[in-house]
């Protein structure tokens, strides 16, 4: 009986002190930072101040709306974005912006971009067009209206 108890105790003790381990791998991908630069500014051209309406600039630079005066051609804003190859990113445009001329202002809204639903970096510069709508009021005071707006990019 003492032998069975001793063997049983040895088995129980051995099991209680058994140890197992596993090794995991730690890894990290270090990717290049996103960069964005302006290569062309958004320009709504020249319109008459006696008509209420809009000037709509598409992301490819085509425009519709109020008739243009003079030789200034409206242009979409163009940005150069560089993201790491194979990494998706988001483009964020503002909801609206104000252009000012002295004490007067005019609203720009409906910003759009042509980056697509899931832009993915290539490791090289990619071109993104940004368009918007200029909202001209009836009898908008004359002036050279200017302002800024931010476009940002971030990895998903």
Count of helical regions: 1
Alpha-carbon distance between the termini? 69 Å
Quote the average pLDDT.
Answer: 90
Unreliable runs = none
Helix content: under 10%
- Beta content comes to 35-45%
The shape is elongated
Largest sheet: 7 strands, antiparallel
**Fold-level CATH name:** Immunoglobulin-like
Number of domains: 1
- Overall strand count: 9
Using only C-alpha atoms, the radius of gyration works out to: 31 Å
Description:
With 156 residues, the chain is mainly beta. It has one domain (33-155): Immunoglobulin-like, CATH 2.60.40. It has one helix and nine strands. The strands form two sheets. Strands 1, 2, 3, 4, 6, 7 and 8 form a seven-stranded antiparallel beta sheet that branches. It starts with a helix and ends with a strand.
SSE blueprint:
Blueprint: H1 2-16, E1 35-40, E2 53-57, E3 63-65, E4 77-82, E5 89-92, E6 96-101, E7 104-113, E8 125-136, E9 152-155
Antiparallel strand pairs: 1-4, 2-3, 2-8, 4-8, 5-9, 6-7, 7-8
